[in-house]
Design a protein that fits this description.
The complex is a heterodimer of chains A (97) and B (132).
Chain A lengths: L1 E4 L8 H6 L7 E4 L14 H10 L1 E5 H6 L10 E3 L1 H10 L2 E4 L1
Parallel strand pairs in A: 1-2, 1-5, 2-3, 3-4
Chain B lengths: L5 E6 L8 H14 L3 E6 L22 H5 L8 E5 H6 L11 E2 L6 E2 L2 E3 L1 H10 L2 E4 L1
Parallel strand pairs in B: 1-2, 1-7, 2-3, 3-6
Antiparallel strand pairs in B: 4-5
The chains are: A alpha/beta (97), B alpha/beta (132).
């Protein structure tokens, strides 16, 4: 399963809610304001660190660049739009908004 | 300026995911151009709008880094940031974009970081508050 998340982890609980439903080997893709969750050393970093113990976490590179985010949690992989399409082809997906 | 109406704009949304911050900056320039005594406060996800190094090219939108750099040129000079919101996001003063330069020293100026109690005191002084 591919889980997509597009909300800031600081002002929404979508990430916590999503993590309850992630199974081992599921993929979490952070996009739009969701990419803030991939930042190292924040009050919400532990959530993505938790997700990384079980499965893969990707963050959209264009969204990271737009927000000036470079200091990411180790293990978060970068995705371009081709990768996004590839992930959508490989998995059924659910959007956590 | 002392008898000008005191107006505060608060920004609490992150940039780019919605139009809120873009609109808030438009409103700041309009309010400042009317000669009102404007204070602008970035709180919660609003502080993310001030982060350095934002490059929105790949999203196909213009972004507003240039507008933030011109705040002081457009009389948006009282710009404050909530300290707790920065700390929660692992940001420090060095992560904040410049908003102009000092007229006398010509040194670049960053927004002023305040504790929530100082922001609360500023809020209490205002005649009008706009939450954007």
């Amino acid at each position: 399963m591919l889980h997509t998340l597009n909300k800031s982890p600081f002002s929404h609980t979508s990430l916590e809610n999503c993590l309850r439903f992630i199974k081992p080997d599921d993929v979490l893709l952070l996009l739009e304001d969701g990419v803030y969750a991939a930042t190292r050393g924040t009050s919400r970093s532990h959530l993505i660190e938790q997700a990384l113990q079980n499965g893969h976490v990707f963050a959209m590179q264009a969204d990271l660049k737009a927000r000036g985010l470079t200091d990411l949690i180790d293990g978060v992989q970068l995705a371009d739009y081709d990768k996004f399409v590839e992930l959508l082809e490989q998995h059924s997906s659910h959007a956590w908004r | 300026m002392s008898d000008a109406k005191k107006v505060m704009i608060t920004v609490r949304k992150p940039p780019h995911g919605s139009i809120y911050v873009h609109e808030a900056i438009e409103v700041m320039f309009i309010v400042a151009s009317f000669g009102l005594d404007l204070s602008v406060v970035f709180i919660d996800d609003g502080v993310l709008a001030l982060k350095t190094g934002q490059d929105t090219k790949e999203l196909g939108i213009k972004g507003f880094m240039a507008s933030i750099g011109a705040f002081m040129d457009f009389e948006v000079t009282k710009v404050y940031v909530d300290r707790q919101s920065l700390e929660d996001r692992n940001m420090s003063e060095a992560d904040l974009a410049f908003i102009g330069e000092d007229e006398t020293t010509e040194q670049p100026v960053r927004p002023t970081i305040l504790d929530s109690s100082a922001i609360a005191a500023l809020m209490a002084e205002q005649q009008s508050l706009m939450a954007l």
